[in-house]
Amino acid sequence: MDLERGQRSRAVKKQSWRSVLMLAYQSLGVVYGDLSTSPLYVYKSTFADDIEHTESNDEIYGVLSFVFWTLTLIPLLKYVFVVLRADDNGEGGTFALYSLLCRHGSFGFLPSGQLADVELSAYKKKDSTASGGGAAASIVKRLLEKHHALQLMLLILALIGTCMVIADGILTPAISVFSAVSGLELAMSKEHHKYVEVPITCLILVCLFALQHYGTHRLGFLFAPIVMLWLLCISIIGVYNIFCWNPHVYRAFSPFYMYNFLKKTQRGGWMSLGGILLCITGSEAMFADLGHFSPLSIKIAFTSVVYPSLLLAYMGQAAYLSQHHIIQTDYRIGFYVSVPERIRWPVMAIAILAAVVGSQAVITGTFSIIKQCSALGCFPRVKIVHTSSKIHGQIYIPEINWILMTLCLAVTIGFRDTKLLGNASGLAVMTVMLVTTCLMFLIIVLCWHQSIFLAACFIFFFGSIEALYFSASLIKFLEGAWFPLALCIVFMIIMYVWHYGTIKKYEFDVENKVSINWLLSLGPTLGFVRVRGIGLIHTELVSGIPAIFSHFVTNLPAFHQVVVFLCIKSVPVPYVHPQERFLVGRIGPKEYRLYRVIVRYGYQDIQKDDLEFERDLVCSIADFIRSEGSKPSGLAEETDKDDGQMTVVGTGLRIHEEKVEAEDAPGPSASREILSPVIAPKKQVRFLLPRSPKIKEEAKEELQELLEAREAGMAFILGHEYMRAKSGSSLIKRMAIDLGYEFLRRNCRGPMYAFSIPHASTLEVAMIYHV
To answer: In 3D, which of 481, 485, 483, 479 has the Cα closest to residue 50?
Structure first.
């Protein structure tokens, strides 16, 4: 037995490592495509206008030294060893950091927060033991909780990082593919190749975006071999150039060459940093795509494959250029010059394929971060397609995909130059990295409970490097860097207006909710005839009765015997365990048959929009009824002054539906069952109850009534609220609410589950709000 147990343990361990290595292999095709194709344009962008390649080789050695230390300090030291540890339950990206800070700082941007949310297993904070960190965390936490302006600044900082990720998702495909196709310039005159490069680039980009609906899982297996081949190719070419042209090029790794470079080139050398920084484009994807893979797999792929291959590639180019100083034209200092002529065309074909893969990294990251923003109320609702039923986080967003493609084609046709595209891409990349560095300062203090001194050292060291590169990019504002800033402003306005309108709508709902005393005065019949069925009223409120219900009571002659106020909300965690998803409570006395159900989703959860959701909803109410008499241990409860107790139910029972004949009798079952009356061929509904203490007769009655209501069917009452700014409001508020928010609301998607609701079972009610 011990031998069998040991063999089983080794098999599990072996399978685990096999999974990690497989994820590392897939990450090459999804995460590292952009980073691995940077040798195509780094030297070309660096030597574009600001500096010249002279016979002393001071410039080329200085650039190689900068590239080596930048690759070592930013992707390797900052991201691999520090930032990847700051995941939010396995998720990465700007908004994952912001969500993590909101939970640890006890402040947030979601107005529907509850005490019960804190009891979620994914919400609970990981305690870190660090000397001297507790006092610093308390000080920073009090400052953030006390000053609303600081919270607003933190939200704006997160939105800026998000917008620049979107901008990078537009610029990276353009510059990667355009640079790969630019190899044609060596085979034709400069006047002619420009008329060939742009159409071919646009055709490739259209094909790339058209493939996105196949999903990350399929694309990962398709693209990973291409990146492996590309990295092997540039490594071999790099080794060949090193031994053939300059075996001593490794001496440029000395920081002295950076100092000598800046001393000789001065302002031109500083401005050329805008081209050097392109060697780390795609580093943020290591963190943004963390939810698709695992930290260990990403670290293994970078340290063992990507990092050494890139170093060999840059060293090989520098070795070749150190022995070739006569540049016939201004574009002959690019990547393809250092490729031996015999293999130049095959290498260009591989480069084009690798550039397509490189674009995939940022497109995937863009989908991921937009989903997070949408779930947390900072982006209009969009259609999210989950491309893998087995792996969480692999998604495709059709609307965003086509918007990215349109803007990507526009910027390619508009700029038509690697230098302009590089300036724009460099600014977007460095802005995202600066935002990550700033947020990491708070993560180190609030989440890891380290000292402020250590956090200050982190932000000073990495922030100084990134600020230097950022300033070199910003100085080229008129030479392409304006584009990501303009794009950031547009997306910032969209996101902030949506967030502002969402908050104002919720505040209006809270201020105008109906009093529980008014409801009790109506009596058990609520003032009208109660008919069989379940009436499902959608509301954003987590407590109280929405104003729209009073509209029903005064205008409808009859209503359902069971009324459920349904609130579907997001919580600032990536995933909510299914056993913790439903929070159920009762409104008024039992005979009223009024329930409140709050369904909680994380920002990376799959929101159910089919019949399974309806069954889970009914089961959660039945489970609440069954367990109401006794309070099992471990159930989280929340009491509201307008409602009864809210209880977390894990849908311990299941619902079974089948079509039966009238003479059929229910068969024996290991579980106890509550059946509804069966007459004629129809759908039979029954609850399969786990063995537990006896159920009270009163609860059995209520369960029986719930079954009959479920058989009769559900009716969904959806409210359409039209918001208008109050008279006397400022011009900015009127533009934000009347024009901006209303335009976005009319053109975005409704609640996820609403698309599977039969139109015959839907009642839509319109109301106008003045906020």
So the answer is: 479
Token pair 């998607």 is at which residue?
749
What H or E segment, with its residue span, contains residue 683? strand 682-689
Q: By C-alpha distance, which of 172, 161, 95 is closest to 491?
A: 161
Query: Residue 127 class from Cβ within 10 Å (0-12 exposed, 13-18 middle, 19+ buried)?
Result: exposed
Distance CA 605, CA 194 (A): 46
Listed in order, strand segments (DSSP E) in 305-431 are 385-386, 395-396
How far apart (Å, rounded) are the C-alpha atoms in residues 124 and 117? 9
User: Is pLDDT of 564 > 50?
Assistant: yes
CA 49 remoteness from chain centre: 38
Determine the residue type at 520. L
Q: Are 240 and 19 in contact (CB under 8 A)?
A: no
Residue pLDDT, tens place only, 165-196: 899 889 999 999 998 888 777 776 666 666 78
pLDDT tens-digit series, residues 503-537: 888 888 888 888 777 777 777 766 667 788 888 88
Query: Residue 483: is its pLDDT beyond 70?
Result: yes
| Residue 277 φ/ψ region, left for φ over 0, alpha for ψ in the -120 to 50 degree band, beta for the rest | alpha
Positions of E strands within 478-593: 529-538, 558-571, 582-586
- What's the distance, CA 308 to chain centroid? 30
pTM equals: 0.83
Evaluate if residue 608 carries a pLDDT over 70: no
**Residue type at position 17:** W
